[in-house]
Amino acid sequence: MNSAARSLIKRPPVFRIVGLQLIATALISLIAWRWSSVHAYSALAGGLICAVPNMYFAHRAFLYQGAQAARQIVQSIYKAEAVKLGLTAIFFGLAFKFIQPLEPASLFLAFLGVQSVHWFAPLIVGRRQRK
């Protein structure tokens, strides 16, 4: 496939989804601040524990494009997912070890809230692409 044809293939909007996750992290942290600063920074940590590994995944998983690179694409997605899961586990461990005091409920709720952006992102990103 020549470079002109290859340029017609659009990359998935994964970085937009990560951007939405970072926005959700900030909003959730601001909402949690209403209760206390401990809730706010615990929520911030939970959101970043979700968004940062996803940012790594987005960067690494889509290095290759095109049908000729199918094997490389699959390998990069599997490797990026494994590293993403490892980073998530490490970040949770670091949060519980080094963030004191920590509000676990805010940490986990923010993580889940930011993770749920994946469920709604296709609706949001799809609308923007159709316009």
Describe this structure in words.
With 131 residues, the protein is mainly alpha-helical. It has one domain. 79% of the residues lie in helices and 0% in strands. The protein contains six helices and no strands. It is flat. The protein starts with a helix and ends with a helix. InterPro entries: ATP_synth_I. One of its GO terms (cellular component) is plasma membrane.
The biggest sheet, with number of strands, parallel, antiparallel or mixed sense and barrel status, is:
none
Q: What is the domain tally?
A: 1
Global morphology? flat
Helix proportion of residues, in percent? Answer: over 70%
> Into which percentage range does the β-strand content fall?
under 5%
Radius of gyration: 17 Å
Distance between the termini: 29 Å
What string gives the helices and strands in order? Answer: HHHHHH
Number of helices: 6
Structural class: mainly alpha
Q: Mean pLDDT, as a whole number?
A: 87
How many β strands by DSSP?
A: 0
Helices and strands in order:
Blueprint: H1 3-6, H2 14-32, H3 37-61, H4 70-98, H5 104-115, H6 117-130
Helix pairs in contact: 2-3, 2-5, 2-6, 3-4, 3-5
At a glance:
Keywords: Cell membrane, Membrane, Transmembrane, Transmembrane helix. By secondary structure, the chain is an all-alpha fold. Helix content is 79%, strand content 0%.
Give structural attributes.
mainly alpha; about 130 residues; disordered N terminus; about 80% helix; 6 helices; flat
